[in-house]
Amino acid sequence: MALAEQDALGVREQLFHERVRECIICALLFASLYILCHFIITHFKKHTDFAAVHDDEDAAVNRIALGLCTFTLAVALGAVLLLPFSIISNEVLLSFPQNYYIQWLNGSLIHGLWNLVFLFSNLSLVFLMPFAYFFTESEGFAGSKKGIMARVYETSVVLLLLTLLVLGMVWVASAIIGNDAASRQSLYDLWEYYLPYLYSCISLFGVLLLLLCTPFGLSTMFTVTGKLLVKPRLLEDLDEQLSCTRLEEAAVSRRI
């Protein structure tokens, strides 16, 4: 019994250390992405945005919006890099299966990263980005005391109404498409069904928008590139240019 208890304690301790290691790695990766996204946003933003604001309240609102946008961009960048990271980590583990220093690239870490990316993607899509937009546009309710909290209250109310509207539209759409009794039930399974369904609908809309805009972007890119680059003159007919020059010279001579 004592040996079994020691084995169980050792297993629990190992699982605890693995969980702590995964949390530290995830925190370091997200901190690196957050710093990178902060530099990207501050590089491409306008000079008057988030900085040259004379009112302290507006400056604080802009800083909060900057932090939310940076967090969302970090999550999006992590979602883009997660699949290459998974492939590279799998190849590294297959190449060096006995190396102790790369054993942290295991399936548990990748699975945890996928869960965190999915959670933060829903959080950013449903709450953070709409909150940042409404927060910068809010001024507080009429008659209330001005300040940051007044803007927070107004933004929370508007965001709550928008959430109810979107969830109602998703519920009606699922009831129409499903056409059964289960799809017409109440919103009890909000986290397990409606949020992933809403995330899938918005992702589908983004993919359709990408497919629609990509041809126009490529055509614009080739048009701009064709204007900037100098066309090669290797295939030009020099005899034809000489004959045209002689004809122009003859025409000018007759006019003189």
Automatic annotation (TrEMBL):
It is a multi-pass membrane protein. The keyword rRNA processing does not apply. Its main location: membrane. GO terms for cellular component: endoplasmic reticulum membrane; plasma membrane. One of its GO terms (molecular function) is transmembrane signaling receptor activity. It holds the Pfam family LMBR1. The keyword GTP-binding does not apply. InterPro entries: LIMR (IPR008075), LMBR1-like_membr_prot (IPR006876). Belongs to the LIMR family. This is LMBRL protein. The gene is Lmbr1l_1.
